[in-house]
Design brief:
Elements lengths: L3 H20 L2 E2 L12 H12 L5 E7 L3 H18 L2 E5 L7 H9 L1 H4 L10 H15 L4 H8 L6 H10 L5 E3 L2 E3 L5 E8 L6 H17 L6 E5 L1 H35 L2 H26 L2 E2 H10 L5 H8 L7 H27 L4 H23 L1 H8 L9 H8 L9 H13 L17 H14 L6 E7 L2 H20 L5 E3 L1 H4 L3 H10 L3 H12 L10 H12 L11 H7 L4 E3 L2 E9 L4 H5 L6 E5 H35 L2 H24 L6 H21 L6 H22 L8 H24 L10
Parallel strand pairs: 1-8
Antiparallel strand pairs: 2-6, 2-7, 3-6, 4-5, 9-12, 9-13, 10-12, 11-12
């Protein structure tokens, strides 16, 4: 019966958590972890990363079999993906400008084609065209001549085809795309779902794998790349790491607590504030953000491992026969300061400008406060009601031997000095300015993506020149004004090529100029009669041609809405689109390039976006803000300790211990070749909060040897739990998790050692 209140409290806590997580929305879209842009360029870039069509492209290769077999597999896979309904575009060369796409372009060829000039409809040019057609009619291409040549003897359709096919070195085998320099069949697909919608991308990936398996590939293998693939694999890897390590670390922490307290009842009591804090943190995060990200949940729960410290500190400091209120009275001030400083140590995460990291910070800070409140308000009653036996304080004689080490506390300045000198000799901390090095995507996968892009001819989205306008036609006209200057860059080999909507869909003014170049029916009939004189063509052979020219002369300019066909839409959508009432026309460049001449094209509605530089600046800005918040949190923590302890010398000792731990951590990371990033700054913030727990409890005025023994044993237990929680992150495959784990593990051990040496009192009463 004594344990009934404890069991009831545990059941209620678990029930509350179940209800919370039943109604809380947990999402896994990677866009939720992208930063909020501060400039127009960065905001545009991030919008496109989140919802742009380029983010939903998947580049595929099939290799490892003879070319004919690869072509068969490619065709089979394409057919199955087309039938799945999950893909907006499936292209492997078989239907390039075929079917509805071909019909639409052929219908509007004279307004869209750069080959529409007045000279091309003159008698002399037409005579040359008809002679060419007559020769081709006598070859194996006669069927194509009948289909395209007779209705279009000027070759307007063929003149615009290269622009729609794109710049690539593709070759074809059995009508299927192949890389130019190897036996690799190539496919390009675009998912219906957004590239960063991880749940939908999981379904698309399953469809890809199923289609490949159903094609009976034999020895052939499938490779896939692209932003959607990277986002899905990164999210899956992080979630798997967090899930596995959370389970392993929880088991180890439970085992440690059972060994330390040797009581299931004590374990149940500790579980109450931990379960409540997790549920409250998820609830608050959901109310603020509208959802909880799966990665934030995993990280937050890992970080909440420190909340186990609070019930451990309360139970571990309880003496024989002492009411729980008495224990709180002895440790209350240190407890309150530790909680406050831990929360201050997490504030930097909330204000980094990265929504995902802000979620982690809010989740962890809320959980810390909830765990502290439950430990302070609920746990004492449960301890008394359950009559939990106090824990043995340990051998005080052993404690005295350990405390003798504080006689040599000045030697603790040696590693601090070595760290300072070593860091100075290494040129200070090495900061990571290249965001790609922080990517969870392996370098091999990035190299493979670049290779597939080169083979397919897909542009690298490293630099963009973005044209903005109130209408789509305004954007096209502005692009046309820039195209001659961009063509000069191609001629001077500053760039290899480029993709622009205006090369595919001319502005209304350009189309009207081409209309003006078209002859009237009588003039065209006269020119055709003169050109066909002496040939075997029948008088009505070019009736369709004459009708098409007559129709084009009076047609309204072709608009984006009229080019409604699968391949055309997929080609134009990334190059001309509307966002929030504004039309955008990004121009993407291919080949080696220097950003300077491209940036010179900006202005008058054109915005130059260096994607890599913008992303790097966002990360650098986030790290800078986190650094300032780290400094601000440290200053606020010092003020709080001065107000709470009223002992400036002790506060100085605490600051020395935490500062020393941070310096040693940074020095060791730098010596190990680690380049510090935003993630390391955030981890250092968290480490500082944990270290303050240790320092503040060592700083307490303790009445006797038993009290000091309890403090030492309890803090060692807390430190061990932190290492079990975060130390396991060092074996993760995800670089982000590794960075957090290594930083917190080094920092926690350093903070424990320096707090013991610099903050704790010597064993003799007259020594400070």
């Amino acid at each position: 019966m004594k344990r009934l209140p404890l069991l009831l409290a545990l059941l209620l806590s678990v029930g509350f958590a179940v209800v919370v997580f039943r109604f809380v929305t947990v999402r896994s879209e990677m866009t939720d972890f992208l930063p909020v842009g501060r400039t127009e360029a960065s905001r545009f870039m991030l919008r496109e990363l989140q919802s742009g069509s380029a983010a939903s492209l998947i580049l595929m290769g099939i290799e490892g079999a003879p070319p004919a077999e690869l072509a068969r597999i490619s065709s089979d896979v394409a057919d199955r993906l087309d039938a799945s309904g999950l893909f907006r575009l499936v292209s492997n060369g078989r239907h390039t400008l075929d079917g509805p796409d071909q019909r639409v372009l052929f219908e509007h060829r004279y307004l869209l084609s750069p080959g529409t000039t007045a000279e091309s409809f003159g008698a002399k040019a037409l005579r040359d065209d008809l002679r060419r057609l007559m020769t081709q009619l006598q070859s194996s291409a006669s069927a194509m001549v009948v289909q395209f040549g007779l209705p279009d003897p000027t070759g307007a359709f063929l003149a615009m085809a290269p622009g729609w096919i794109g710049a690539s070195t593709l070759r074809t085998v059995d009508g299927v795309w192949f890389a130019a320099d190897r036996d690799r069949a190539l496919l390009l697909v675009e998912t219906q779902a957004a590239g960063m919608d991880i749940g939908a991308q999981d379904g698309a990936d399953a469809a890809l794998r199923a289609a490949f398996a159903a094609a009976k590939p034999g020895s052939a293998r499938l490779i896939a790349s692209g932003p959607a693939v990277f986002a899905r694999e990164a999210a899956a890897g992080i979630k798997a790491d967090v899930r596995l390590l959370s389970i392993v670390s929880s088991v180890l922490v439970v085992a440690l607590l059972l060994w330390r307290f040797r009581s299931l009842s004590v374990l149940a009591a500790i579980a109450v504030p931990v379960v409540l804090s997790t549920a409250v943190a998820a609830l608050v995060t959901s109310l603020v953000f509208g959802f909880v990200h799966g990665i934030a949940l995993g990280f937050g729960m890992t970080m909440l491992g420190v909340t186990v410290d609070y019930p451990v500190l309360l139970i571990g400091h309880r003496k024989l026969g002492e009411p729980a209120a008495g224990t709180l009275q002895r440790i209350g001030r240190a407890f309150a300061l530790a909680v406050g400083c831990a929360v201050l140590g997490l504030t930097g995460m909330v204000f980094t400008g990265f929504p995902g990291i802000a979620q982690i910070g809010l989740f962890a800070a809320t959980g810390v406060l909830a765990a502290a409140a439950a430990t302070r308000l609920i746990l004492p009653r449960l301890i008394v009601a359950a009559n939990l036996a106090p824990v043995w304080s340990g051998d005080t004689a052993r404690l005295l031997r350990v405390e003798q080490l504080r006689r040599y506390r000045l030697w603790g300045l040696v590693p601090l000095g070595v760290a300072f000198v070593g860091l100075a000799a290494m040129g200070g901390p090495h900061w990571e300015g290249d965001v790609s090095r922080l990517s969870p995507v392996p370098a091999e996968a990035l190299a493979q993506d670049a290779e597939l892009r080169r083979e397919i001819g897909a542009p690298d989205l490293g630099d963009l020149l973005v044209i903005r306008g109130t209408t789509a036609d305004a954007v096209l006209a502005a692009q046309e004004a820039l195209l001659p200057r961009i063509d000069q860059l191609v001629a001077s080999h500053d760039i290899t090529g480029y993709e622009a909507a205006a090369r595919l869909l001319p502005s209304a003014a350009t189309q009207k100029a081409r209309q003006a170049a078209l002859p009237d029916s009588e003039t065209l009939a006269t020119s055709l009669a003169a050109a066909s004189e002496g040939t075997a063509f029948q008088p009505d052979a070019f009736a369709a041609f004459q009708q098409a020219v007559a129709t084009a002369r009076v047609a309204a300019p072709v608009t984006l809405a009229q080019l409604d066909a699968p391949a055309i839409t997929a080609r134009l959508t990334p190059l001309l689109f509307q966002r929030d009432g504004v039309w955008y026309g990004p121009i993407a460049f291919t080949g080696p390039r220097d950003g300077a001449p491209l940036a010179a094209l900006a202005g008058h509605g054109a915005l130059f976006v260096d994607m890599h530089a913008e992303t790097d600046s966002l990360v650098a800005g986030g790290a800078a803000r986190a650094g300032w918040w780290l400094a601000g949190g440290a200053f606020a923590a010092i003020l709080a300790m001065l107000a709470g302890l009223r002992e400036p010398l002790m506060v100085a000792r605490i600051a020395l211990a935490i500062g020393a731990a941070g310096l040693v951590t940074v020095a060791l990371l730098t010596a190990g070749g680690v380049r510090l990033s935003l993630i390391h700054v955030v981890a250092l913030q968290f480490t500082a909060g944990v270290g303050l727990d240790y320092a503040l409890f060592y700083a307490r005025r303790q009445l006797d040897e038993e009290e000091r023994a309890r403090t030492l044993r309890t803090l060692v237990t807390c430190n061990a739990m932190t290492l079990l929680t975060f130390g396991l992150l060092t074996v993760c495959h995800t670089p982000l998790l590794q960075s957090i784990g290594i930083t917190v593990a080094i920092g926690a051990v350093s903070a424990m050692c320096f707090s013991f040496l610099f903050v704790g009192l010597r064993p003799h009463p007259d020594a400070i």
